[in-house]
Design brief:
Layout: E1 2-6, E2 12-20, E3 29-32, H1 33-41, E4 46-49, E5 56-63, E6 70-74
Antiparallel strand pairs: 1-2, 2-3, 4-5, 5-6
Amino acid sequence: MQRELVAEPKLHAHVVSVGTSVDDGVIDRWWTLAETLAAMEGGEHFYTIGSESKMLARVRPSVCPLCLHDLIGSTGEAVADNNLESLPSV
């Protein structure tokens, strides 16, 4: 996942691209935010998986509460290692 900083109304980060992998954890495709949102609108599903918990969290369209831009987030599972916001940027 890659993030970029947004300055208004205050400094915060947005996910701008996500990497997908079939099953080995090696990223085989990068999706821009626009591509990800369009794919989800077209019926595709994206998930994160916790590196330690092995629990899935579904990625979903969302809106930034600070600047109202369209973005993506993940369902709350109360597990930090599968939460999209907790995953490291690469």
